[in-house]
Amino acid sequence: MTHEKERVLAINPGGTSTKIGVYTRAGSELVKTIKHGDEELLRFRGRPMLARLEYRAGLIERELEAAGYFQAGLGVARFAAVAGRGGMLPPLPCGTYLVDEAMVEELRLARLGEHASNLGALLALRFARAAGVNAYIVDPVTVDEWQDCARITGSPLVQRTSIGHALNTKAVARRFAREQHTTYESMRLVIVHMGSGITVSAHKDGRTIDSNSIEEGPFGPDRSGGLPVRALVKLCYSGKYTEKELDRHVFGDGGLFAYLGTRDLLEVEQRIDDGDADAARIFQAMVYQIAKEAGAMAVVLQGKVDAVLMTGGIAHSERVVNLLSDYLKWIAPITVYPGEDELQALTQGVFRVLDGEEQAKRMGAPQEAAPTTPDFR
Questions:
Q1: Which is it for strands 96-98 and 75-76: parallel, antiparallel or unpaired?
Q2: Side-chain half-sphere of 212: how many Cα atoms within 13 Å?
């Protein structure tokens, strides 16, 4: 086993799974996906996300123990650091951040909303303390590099907010640039991340200048995406639903689940193969909405797009990729990175800090400001 100073533990909690990995600079020693089925998660329904902390920590301990990285009563093996997925924090530039008390308090308050990613820093800190090292997050979901015009909605009462899958989209953008023997900063990309949530983003000059957020854009496995505003207002005041019920409907029980009763895309595709016309109709509508959002991001880049990248767990689906490619092939060449590089991206960000290539940031410290006006180059 690699020396402890060369080893980083990464923890990535998602809506229906917790992924863990032990990485060295050469690659992975351990990668595990711990699944959380609907029945398992039912007991946490309606409770704050932090209620799942002990449950998920226990599952991680079990996997680390089985792999020889943990022994009951003695704690975890020594690591150089522990990395966790960044959660719903105030807007931040991309980078690697130290998990400190200010960040922990922000996640406990969950002022920007409940999300599984809120557990990432807390789980990382728990295992980092046991190992006697620092905990970090990398490119949290609230990375904000938008141009100013992207924030304006049409009502001064509401502003668009940058929340999405920054960690994976940044990772695949850098990976694609390396494969093209160029730099991320020199490319113009449309990136389609398709997982439990769907983020479609426009990238220029090394920045994500626009994207859909978690409460707009295409619907996904369990999220409603954007809804007609006046119809939603009527639902809110109909007296039929509480605020929590409607919030759960649009984020957690929406999308495919609301229509078809399942979040499992494989099950949906099997139903299509078995002749379920309703499953086919809803499936095609989801892909159609993803394509519309990608077209919008191509417009943000004024049609000057070097590549369209598809990534996330849903990119494993040949049916999705083929149907989506039919819509998007006119924009630019398409490259597919099925799954996500988030565990590796977390550890790469931490190794950059450990190797002195990047300085760890702290939440609340002065950061470089994003451009306030669009640059239409």
A1: unpaired
A2: 30
